[in-house]
Protein: Aminotransferase
Amino acid sequence: MKLAARVGQVTPSLTLAIAAKAKAMKADGIDVCSFSAGEPDFDTPNHIKIAAEKALNAGKTKYGPAAGEPQLREAIAQKLKTDNHLNYSAKNVIVTNGGKHSLFNLMLALLDPGDEVIIPAPFWLSYPEMVTLAGGSPVIVSTTAESGYKITPDQLRSACTPKTKLFILNSPSNPTGMVYSPDEIRALAAVVVEQDILVVSDEIYEKILYNNVQHLSIGEVSEEVFKRTIISNGFAKAYSMTGWRIGYLAGDAELIQATSTIQSHSTSNVCTFAQYGAIAALESPQDCVQEMLQAFALRRVAVLERIRGMSNISCPEPEGAFYVFLNITKTGMKSLKFCDALLESHQVAAIPGIAFGDDDCIRLSYATDLPTIEKGLDRLEKFLQQHL
Structure:
């Protein structure tokens, strides 16, 4: 069978592949410590599940508007006004099948063949693949640990060309956990306006912040930036709703209508009764978010303390999300070889940095329980000692 050429232009998700391999090993009775998936280990808070159950029992099982339930779109718009000071209304919001789907819809609605999209590396592995599938050209801008894995205004300016359409900003970051300070956001915003480009701000980890670090949404900087800003977000990380597949995109009304048209011919509406769980997530007290954040904070400290005691690996201190991005240059191994050997010999699953655009690093997720973290880091330390 001859497949479309676009299929050969993208690679399968390494994060999903390694997570699947780890699960298969566990199914075979092997004790695997997995640091692979970016998925909180907590159950979805009960009040969210109850709201979805009530909607199910009330017959909310039919087709709904392609752009999402009106009540949920209103709730999201209100959240953006209250939390991020972004003046959106419901018409500026589309509900999508997860945050990933919101970005995929955006690329399809926005990009023509040859349009360039600036992506700082390390990056979430799906960004360049989505751009490629939509016919655009990813422009990768490398950053370093010394710069906090953050793109600078000069780098952004230098990467812009007449073909530049979009800049992807992810803060807090997957895979590094780094957070752009308000001043850094303002400096990047100035370049966005100066170069007259669009920016999509992926804010899926915005509520997972440590040590009083502040998240500033780039659209809040000024009206000129707001007009050029698109927000991607969702419920997976902050509310532990990964399997619910509910995300959203917010931006210019014409753009949102375009993504709604695309969605109407692909997935149609997001699961109707699940959207009522998302409404409850936004409109109920946020205690559940803080409880999970406190657990992540303890795990973060435990991981950093252990890593600092190991030789030949290092990482900057993450300020958000639930990842550490370990530099393994001193081991003499590249990321895929390192992760394969670690999984096969010591049954620890990690994600190779090559998936994120940096082959000298690996990503560990601490969205798992402390006993697994401690046992997995014991094994990582033994691996380093035995192989080096």
Observations:
- The first strand starts at residue 33 and ends at 34.
